[in-house]
Sequence to fold (158 residues):
Amino acid sequence: VALELFRKDAEVTMVIRELKLKDSIKYWVKPDIENRIKEGSIKAFFNSSIKEIKEEEVDIITPIGELALKNDFVFAMTGYHPDFTFLIKNKLKMIGKGENLEPEFDPETFETTRKGIFIAGVVCGGMDTGKWFIENSIAHSKNIFDCIESRISAKLNI
Fold:
């Protein structure tokens, strides 16, 4: 969103809780954001947090102290973290722990450990949300439908 706003001539300031941009940012977007920050086109406050959002300013806490930033609009872009409640409730096998937690599935068919239940897209990467995106997971559906089609064909002896 920061890059899109920047490209529409908005003055963009990012307040980032971490010391650096996360590695989970899309690999083709991250260098662009880093370069805009480096050249000063997009301002960034790292290792910082929002204290208060007011009508015309945002108060932030930075390593050098508190700052008040004038603003017109605030976009809370918190990133995507998967919710595995549905998968666990339906007894799908999860592997790994913490940041390495992910659903177990066949990488060819995207079928989970429960026959007939498939997953696709970002959720396939589990907590590693930088592994799959809309752009590189679009083919998951073809694999899934090919698997289903072959099962139907086998059942019907086609």
Q: What stands out?
A: The helical segments are 2-7, 30-39, 85-89, 134-137, 140-156. Residues 140-156 form the longest helix (17 residues). The chain has a mean pLDDT of 91. The first strand starts at residue 12 and ends at 15.
